[in-house]
Amino acid sequence: MKILHIPVLCDEIIENLYIHNKTTNIIDCTLGEGGMSEEILSTIEDVYIFGIDKDSSILNIAKERLRKYKNIDLINENYINLSKNKKINKDIHNIIFDLGLSNYHLRNSNKGFSFDSNNILDMRFDESENLTAHQIINQYNKKELLTIFKEYADFPINSNTNKFIEHIFQKRPIDTCENLKKICLNFYRNLPYNKAIQNITRIFQAIRIEVNNEFENIKNGLENAFNVIEPKGRILAITYHSGEDKIVKNIFREYKSNNNIEKKFKLINKKVIKPTFEEQKTNSSSRSAKLRIIERVI
Fold first, then answer.
1. Is the C or the N end of the chain the one with fewer CB within 10 Å?
2. How far is it, in rounded angstroms, from Cα 25 to Cα 27?
3. Backbone angles phi, psi at 216, to 5 degrees
4. How far apart are CA 264 and CA 262, in angstroms?
5. What is the Cα–Cα distance from 247 to 72, expressed in whole angstroms?
6. If pLDDT is split at 50, 70 and 90, which confidence band does 1 have?
7. Among the listed residues 218, 214, 194, the one whose alpha carbon sits nearest the alpha carbon of residue 206
8. In this predicted structure, what is the pLDDT of residue 48?
9. Beta bridge partners of 237
């Protein structure tokens, strides 16, 4: 089997794990193809991992990749439910979030994540969910589209954004990723091609975030993590989008500053940890990555 996924900031994650004097128990909340967990399993001697992913197809890839390891339990679940999952039955010393879009989903064109595919607009990580990209682009009203492009693509609320949304309305129905890309390219035809592609990337990103309720899931997942992490344990979050990073930063600061709760936390890194220049050269997916870490003191 050809493995294409390269985990981001892997050395920095491993260096900052809390190592328990017995077995170190870890929840990998975004298992994906299993790259991060594989590095941890091959590096740390006495460790047990609960690997969570809500996409059953990618979980099967991780299962094959990690089949030689007996000290990992794979769970097909949304990480927002980690505190309720009965399979997670050990004291937890580290919880890892590697947020954003997996390269697997870009490669797997039938999911409709890539604007270079000719598949139906879908973008669901979990196919049991109802909302799809096709519904958003064809059924959302102008105000709803404006909101997601503002919140998730950082588009300004101005006449150009309104004209773009009107352009989308005129071209409905829009069925495939390729159709949407062509319609966007037509609207941005007076821009340099690379600038147009940057805007289209942000448009697809905004739709994907809306489909999968990603920002709300991050908030709920982190809240669950704070509920289950043991004293001295650490929560480590890698983000790739300014919106993701803002959520993580604000929640970490809130827990650090909250003097009214029994649990106390401290920030391990006041400034974000970024990939080295060498990692960015060899793994382009890492270029926008930021790592934040918080530790439960008591």
1. N
2. 7
3. -65, -35
4. 6
5. 29
6. very low
7. 214
8. 98
9. 97, 292
DSSP per position, 9-61: SHHHHHHTS---SSPEEEEETT-TTSHHHHHHHHH-SSEEEEEEES-HHHHHH
User: pLDDT confidence of 298, banded at 50, 70, 90?
Assistant: confident
Architecture of domain 130-211: Orthogonal Bundle (1.10)
Residue spans in the chain of domains classed CATH 1.10.150.170: 130-211
User: 293: which strand partners?
Assistant: 236
Strand order in the sheet with 92-98: 72-76, 47-53, 24-28, 92-98, 229-239, 290-296, 265-267
pTM: 0.91
DSSP characters over the chain: -------SSHHHHHHTS---SSPEEEEETT-TTSHHHHHHHHH-SSEEEEEEES-HHHHHHHHHHTTT-SSEEEEES-GGGTTT-TT--S-EEEEEEE-S--HHHHH-GGG---TT--SBS---SSTTS---HHHHHHH--HHHHHHHHHHHH---SSHHHHHHHHHHHHH----BHHHHHHHHHHHTTTS-HHHHHHHHHHHHHHHHHHHTTHHHHHHHHHHHHHHHEEEEEEEEEEE-SHHHHHHHHHHHHHHHH--SSSS-EEES-SS-B---HHHHHH-GGGTT-EEEEEEE--
Q: Residue 61: pLDDT above 50? A: yes
Residue 113 in contact with residue 134, Cβ under 8 Å? no
Q: Cα–Cα distance between 289 and 9 in angstroms, integer? A: 8
CATH code for 10-104+214-296? 3.40.50.150
Average pLDDT of the segment spanning 68-85: 95
